[in-house]
Every structure is written in structure tokens, then in C-alpha cells.
Amino acid sequence: MPPMPPMPPKPLPDRPLARRSVLAGLVGATALTALGSSPAWAGARRHRAEDPATVVARAFPAAEPERLRLATTYRGSDFIPTGHYAPAGATVTVRVDPVDGILPTLHVGTYDNHPDDPNLTAPRAVTLTAGVNTFTDAYGGPLHLRLAGDGERAIVTFLSGAVRMPTFTLDSTTEGEFQDQLDTLTDSLYVELVSPHALVTVTRASFLPYRGEDHTALMRIFEQVIDSHAAVAGLDGSSPLHRRKAGPYQFSEVPKVPTGVGAYATHYYNAFPPAYMDRLLTVGGLSTRGWGLYHELGHLHQQFAYRPAGLTEVSVNIYSLAAQRVLGQTSNLLTVNASTGLNYFQTALPKLGTDGLSFASSFGAYEKLVSLRQLELAFGTDIWPKLHRLIRVENPQSDWATQDALRWTTFAVCTSRVTGYDLSDFYLDKWAYPIDADGVAALAALGLPEPPVDPSTLSD
Q1: With the C-alpha atoms ordered 61, 41, 47, 269, is the resulting torsion angle positive or negative?
Q2: Is the pTM for the entire model greater than 0.85?
Q3: Residue 149: C-alpha distances to residues 56, 60, 331, 348, 399 (Å)
Q4: How many CA atoms lie within 13 A of 45 on its CB side?
Q5: Which member of 78, 218, 224, 305 lies 3.0 to 4.6 Å from 247 by CB, making a disulfide possible if both were Cys?
Q6: Is the pLDDT of residue 108 over 80?
Q7: DSSP at 331
Q8: Residue 238: left (phi > 0), alpha (psi -120 to 50), or beta?
Q9: Which pLDDT does position 110 carry in this prediction?
Q10: What is the pLDDT of residues 54-65, one digit of tens each?
Q11: 41-69 burial by CB neighbour count: b if 16+ within 10 A, else e?
């Protein structure tokens, strides 16, 4: 199929297109400035304010323009942490100085804070004006700013009503300072951990059992994991199109997840229930048992153009496998089933090319992932950065409801293009991917040679 011409991007609705991407059980305070990519973080880290009630925020691109640039399914976070918390019903007064002419918006609370109250599905926005602003929020919660722009500054000073929230900032807050905050800033019901690309927002009650962790080490692991995902996504800074996402990724505690779900991803954040805190908040847990977080963060990097429904919970794990490699873990694909004594390569490969095979129904989730790992083994892990960059450049479009088949075709065609080989036999004959007649024709039209090694024979 020839390259698709760029089309005007279509914005997404405020909530997920069809449903949240979820991890099922099987698949495994000092004032702050705006956070973003590493250069933005370095440029934004201000001299520590003498008054901890003052936040100097620096603008960066908003979540939706960033989603369109990156061609991802979901928006990432564009929150700026403030290190402050609004008690429920408190009258909060802030002073705003729009130094460079643009005004921030203040947001109260977290996403999906209570599954049964529609008022608590999203933070409440407070429109700010220059000068003194006063507001009351019946529910209260952590306070964050949004400031869309390109480096412009705004100063927000919390005059009364809000309280400081215990906040650990990598390479800024010492462990001793943070522990003192935990002991003294007890009016805040939340705690936050901040690094250049991560914003972890959890309740105080869930955090305290893990307060003894090394939080510098923990946040460096968050950075490693996020860096591994950025590498898979080809966010190498080689051009403005391929720079890292502006703003942090937010990892938030939620009180409840849907039945059968361990965690989930949606616009703006990844959500984790209290039962996941032993992995979210511990060095050992995140570095050795964090597949759920690697998986959910992967959803915020998935590009929509080649994300058919049948690959959503499979291709997301190319990022999870990359995180495992960076952290020195054994691949989940090599997990041995106690009842069979076989790993996922060993159970999947005998099925390939057999009569009546169906990618959708003949394989389990990890077995399907074997097909993508085989592509890495045959052509190198660089196929994924190349694929992501190709999609950002060409910007192919499809309709969410009606063009799932087109996304299967886009995946098969574009991976063939970045490898330089005809992958028809691999996808159609060996793995029985559901590629329709148009897709088969598009693959044939590429006129590429057969690969020198059959990827379907490879295993770790």
C-alpha cells in the first residue's frame, strides 16, 4: 500500500473512545515548576522559592495537541504539581501573576476518585484571573495547574485555605526533608512523588506503609521505565515531531477498579487500586514485579493508526518487554506453565500454520505477543521506533467505529515497510492475522522480497 496522505487530525472526546484499556488478571513539598521532557525539566527547575506557598509554573503544550503530534490513542497528563492540597469545603485564596501574559487553570482533586459519584470522575477546574482569586470545593483534593503554551511563566501563590502536601521531588527533595513533611504536613490526605517524567499521586493512607522506601531510587526506576517506553516509541528528539511528550505521565491511586481488572489506562493518567501499592510505591516491587505498570504506561504510548481491537492488549506489551529488558528481568514470555512445563513460545509455535487457525481464538494473550517478539528477534527491536516515527510522519487516519480492518492492514503494511521484507507469509499463513482482501492486496503491492529468515521459527 502506498503511503497514506496526511489528513486533518480528529480530536478525541474527553473520555475514552470506547472503553478504558485495562490490565486484566491474565496480562499481567516544595513549590514546583512545570515538568516535561528532560530539557524542559532542566529549564523549569527554578531557584527554590523562599516562600513554599509560591509556584512558578512554566507553560508547555497541552495534552490534546501532544496526542495529535504523537498520533497516540490517549492523551497524556498535562498537570503541573503545586505541592498543595485543598481540604474539603475550605475557602482557598490564591494570587496569580501572569508574568508572560497567559493564565493557568487550577484543578482540584483526582480522576475517578469515587466510582459511584459522578462529581468525582474528574478534577474540578477553577478559572483563574490575574490578581486574587477565591474558591471553595466541596470535595477537596490535590491541587494541580494547567498552563498551555511554550515556556511562558505564571506565578501562583497560595495565600490561605490550602495546605502543603508532602511532595518528594527527585534531585531536589532529600529523603530527610520528605520524611519531615510526612510527619508534619498531616492535614493533606494525599502524597505526591515527582520526577522529570513521572507524577505519582496517592492517598496518604496508602502511602504511609511504604514510607521507608528509598524514594530517590524509586523515582529513578520510574524514569528508567518511562525512558524504555520512549525508546520503543522512537522519541529520540531527532526532530520536533519526535521529541518526548511534554509534561509528566501521571500514575494515580483510585479506590476501585472494574471487576476482573488489576489497573487501567485512559486519557491523562494510569490508575492503580490500593492493592497495587506494593508495586507502585516500592523499589523492589516496581523493579521486579511492575509488569502491570509497564503495561498501562504502554497504553499511553500506543499509536491509534495500527491499533485494531484485537491487538490493543497485545501490542501494548512491546513496551512492557522493553521495560523488562532495561530492568534486567526475565521475559514474561519465558514463564513456564507449572502444569505443562512449557513457556509461551513452546505452546504457541506448534500451532503456527495449522488448519483452522485463528489469531483471535487460537492463542492466549501472551502467545499472541510471541508473534511480535519474533519480529524483534528477526529484525531487531529498532523496528518499533521506526514504525512509530513513520506513523508520526505520514499520519494515517481511520474511523474508530468502522475501520478496524484498516488498522490491521496498516500494521502489516507498515511493519513490512520498516523491515524491508514481505511479511505476508508470517502474518497470513503462519499466525492467521485477520487481514482482509484489501490488506492482502496492499501487502502484495509493496513488492518486497521474502525475509532471509522465517521469523515464525524464532524464539528466545
Answers
A1: positive
A2: yes
A3: 14, 5, 41, 49, 30
A4: 13
A5: 78
A6: yes
A7: P
A8: alpha
A9: 96
A10: 999 999 999 999
A11: beebbbeebeeebbbbbbbbbbbbebbbb
